[in-house]
Fold each of these.
Amino acid sequence: MSRISLKVDGVRYDDDVDPRTLLVHHLREHLGKVGTVVGCDTTNCGACTVLMGGKSVKSCTVLAAQADGQEIETVEGLAGKDGSLHPVQQAFHDSHALQCGYCTPGMIMAAVDLLAENPEPTDDEVREGLEGNLCRCTGYQNIVRAVQDAAAVMRAEVPAPRDAGTEPMEGTRGTTSPAAEEVAR
Amino acid sequence: MIPAQFEYARPSSVQEAVRALAEAGEDAKVLAGGQSLIPMLRMRLAVPSTVIDLGGVSDMRGVRDDGDALAIGAMTTYADVIRDPMVREHAPLVVQATETVADRQVRHMGTFGGALAHADPAGDMPSVALALDMMFDIEGPGGRRAVPAGEFFVDYFTSALSPDEILVSVRVPKLPGWGTHYEKFNRVAQAWAIVGVAAAVRRSGDTIEKARIALTNMGPTPVRARGVEEALAGAPATAEALASAAARADEGTAPTGDVSASSEYRSYLATVLTRRAVAAAAGIPQDG
């Protein structure tokens, strides 16, 4: 057994795991994080996407032991404490960016990762950025729309951590943030 | 699908890793980013007794300026390679080819050295290594040795690495004055190359001085298109000269046929993609 320590959606977990345990199975079966699903189990579909150290990974293709010491964010950690949806979740809801919904947790996490790197993507960049996520209902039109809507909402917010607590001052910081991000890129 | 049981070691230095590998014996496997190995473990195509995870060896990550070359740590992820300002400046071919590998998630985990050590003939990095004449720094119980790309790829999924050796870093020569391009043909996003062509070309005015062309997935290892290189050396930088040179792209290759393409189609693709890759690398306008 390997001793691992993970922070998952803000909570620290110390566990002994069999080295062959995949991260997705550890999340679902040991930590109860069943919002992250197993789709293809072959590294193709992206349904199991989570953020590890802030970057999207396919959790069916990471050993739990490899994730030792890392911070993991799953789709269950996106909403605010008051239940308010993350802008990407809200946009997927508003645009009906899903049919069966099985790809949605991974799609949303991949979109969160993409927008963190590229806050103002073109439609092509969204499609390219989500190439690791398959929707077999073929709902891509609405998915691209949702990601663009979420990007617009997020650009209007202050580029600060979501849990910063205080609300941005309307207008000033909100309107200057995209330019600041442009410079940062 | 769950991998078979294995022992797990997570060394924190190259020396520790080499020692752990020696102790674990021939059935051990080295884990880099795991984006090829973990699928093989899941499908039980690989059933190692011990997995040596290099994820904790921080010395093997990152890019260093090494004078005439860049030294890319074997554990540097694809994503970090793409973002690295030195790689972007001195090895744009590496950036361009790496951007075509799989998808964002895989590029966040998958490593530059892992892809090369895996020696998949359909992988994009091996042909780029050949075209740029990279040098592989390898460490084993007997110390360190360097192997040029031309001798590193031995057969399907087989490299010059002995079972007790680890690929530590790869030196990528800076090629001032060369133009480069990677041309990849696949049918769907994130798929492996059906055929790929890595081209590095040095022009002198209206003449092609030198060209190095390497092909992805045209045999059990990546292979240099020597016939094309010969034909291009000293040739005028024109569409006509290029077309006749590129027609020799499949000389000396041994492409297989599979569900994606017959061997004949792969041979045809090699000529078309070579023409496109060299045209882009050398700035030769093409009609179609």
Amino acid sequence: MSAPQTTADATGVDAPGRPGPGPGRGRPPRARDASHARDYGPGFVAKLVLMAVVDAFGVYVVWSAWQSSSYGVLAATLVLLLVANWAYFSRRALPLKYVLPGLVFLLVYQVFVVAYTGYVAFTNYGTGHNTTKEQAVSALLVQNERRVEGSASVPLTVVADGDELGFAVVTEDGVEVGTADDPLAAADGATVEDDRVTAVPGYEVLPRDQVLQRQGEVTDLRVPVSDDPEDGSVRTTDARTGYVYLSTLEHDAAADTLTDTTTGTVYAPNDEGQFEAQDGTTLAVGWRVPVGFDNFTTAFGDSRYAEPFLAILVWTFVFAVGSVATTFLLGLFLAITFDVRLRGRRFYRTLMILPYAIPGFLAALLWSGLLNTRFGFVNDVLLGGAEIPWLTDPWLAKLAVLGVNLWLGFPYMFLICTGALQSLPSDAWRRRGSTARGDGAPGGRSRCRCSSSRRRRCSSRRSPSTSTTSRSSTCSPGADRASTTRRCRWGTPTSSSRWSTPSPASTGRRRRLRSRERAVDRRVPHRRDHLRPRVPRHPLVRGDQLTWRPPQHLPPSAGVSRRPRRNGAAAAPAAGSPSSAGATSSASSRSSTPRSRSCTCSRPRCPRTAR
Amino acid sequence: MYVLSASLSENGTLTGSNTLFADVSTANYAQLGATMFWTWTVNTIVVAVATSVGTVLMGAAAAYAFSRFRFTGRRAGLTSLLVLQMFPQMLAFVAIFLLLLGLGDVVPALGLDSKVALVAVYLGGALGVNTFLMYGFFNTVPRELDEAAKLDGATHAQIYWTIILRLVAPILAVVALLSFISTFGEFIVARVVLSSESRWTLAVGLYGWVSSLREANWGLFTAGAVISALPVLALFLYLQKYIVGGLTAGSVKG
């Protein structure tokens, strides 16, 4: 823990200020000799300031959650705060420093939301059942208010606070003012003239003509007498006299029942989240209760729901598959088309992206206008006044949706394919092109084949760091720009893998696999390949595996060293064949002799066998 | 395909105005000024920029951690990210609404009808897929670069900010662009979260103009559509060199 401040990595190396609760500053994980907390550079200050802001916000949230007694929010905030502080001030939580900001949002707005959706699916949330029981009770009390027979009337004046209306009533104790949200409270300093309030501090007395204008609002206004809904409220019908309204329902908190004071009916809570009388009548406002699988039984059991649901589900799948297939094919086709050097390529590309630049909802609305049966552009102009019911006929509508989605979606695929095509080293084109052409493939075919196989491979590139540990497991999905997940057995090598040692468990199976793969990959194209006669390939070897693949992360210029070498030992790893990924130099030199024997290449003058 | 550019400058406000460029006028554009259009535009751009910046920062940080550090729960974390991103956020809008309702009681700025809340919701939803996209790209940056930098005495934060982020600029641009575009056009969540008209985004606002076919104001709508397509287009043109360039390939030479 003693911090030698003179270590090489402690000298004024600091992160720039970061916007947002970015990762904290710390040491490389292995530098355990020094505590980064003693390293007071600008980076540390930035972290401190950011954490102070985060903590201040967190404390504010905790405080106001306490105020509004939202204990769930309070607990969650507390936990998040503690974790954040621990992560950024601890030396042991290095990865967490980077993951945490995103993780917080993910947890709150995705994980929680997903879980909450799941929970709601098991409740009877919906109209009449969207609150808690307490809120339901007070809503019921309010809704069942009646004017109490013989209750005293009070002189009343309509006042306004901005847009909000309120009542000022004159009682024996003085003037009381309240609005729909604020219960009546004594107002000091109000002036009264002949039972009419003429001025209330904080409010303005509404003139008569405005009262008439807002008659509906005035008669609907309900000003509670106190915070307790059982105390009733003041209402008016003529804007001059107020009457106290009391609820006909009475809440018995001990027995948890509601009693109708006029009829004497007792309503008790039932399992469905409603108050129910003995005879089965229920009160309108209920609350949310878990209902188990009821929602699911309704959705799948009731044919009124189940049949449309199934039909929609099937169509959704068809739509998903169909639109992905069409957009991808069109995008790929266009990407390949525009990958060649072409005058105005930039312009065409921009044009291609245009549908993407228009927000999806706009395009959808626009198309709904264009496809309008009678006035739409498609029918009216393009089809010369035909009245094709694009959007009303069930099948045509589906076709139209697919078409519109194709229009909307192909730019994305175009972008992705362009990116993937451009990540191919340019000399691969040349080599592959010439090899393929030398093999008798027409230019277009070689391009398509090469590019598609290469793209397959780029998207299945493995993480370099896991090359020795997770050899036969799934590769990193979504590698490169394509976000597809694929399985691959072998990745392309990285320069780093040359330095990593195979785990002790490497051995037999792996080596067997490797030598098989190597046998395939050792067919390295030669400069004069195209001059050679074409011979049938080994039946066991797939065509596109025969050709050389360079490691994709290396720049094209590095390809110089990847040409087949004349001296045997160096040729093995430097050939850059994917099979030697992770093979240490010792392993490759050991196996160089047997490998040349195991070459299955059937070419007459394979560079290896000829040697 | 580009009929929209035709219908934009017409004066007629019905779908029936099908002759292209019959009468070119800027009346519709002038009329936009009388509506809330510009407020919506500003709202949308604020929300979209905030979302894409946040997405890039958080996604890149998470991807860096997943790609460079080995820690317990790494594989599990990656898998759960993959699973989580399968769940479309817009289907959960009921829960989002309820969550924001609850949060709004505590912090009004994070409640319903707030742009901050909308951005937060977007950020929550954007993380999964973007982290994966970036994770793949981060893996293609050779570790030697980090190691060399580490030997030279760089801290991990320095490696991250000055080396890795420079190298993965293309994918950052792509992610920023994608999240900007998707936020720009997002409708459902925006519709659910934002209730007052002055806080609507373009998607919500423009939808209101043409949602009812009877009184659809196509002239205004198309004018608005063209204007709202401009930011995305500009962004794309600006970022094109990043998207198109392969920066990583060039940096390994040293």
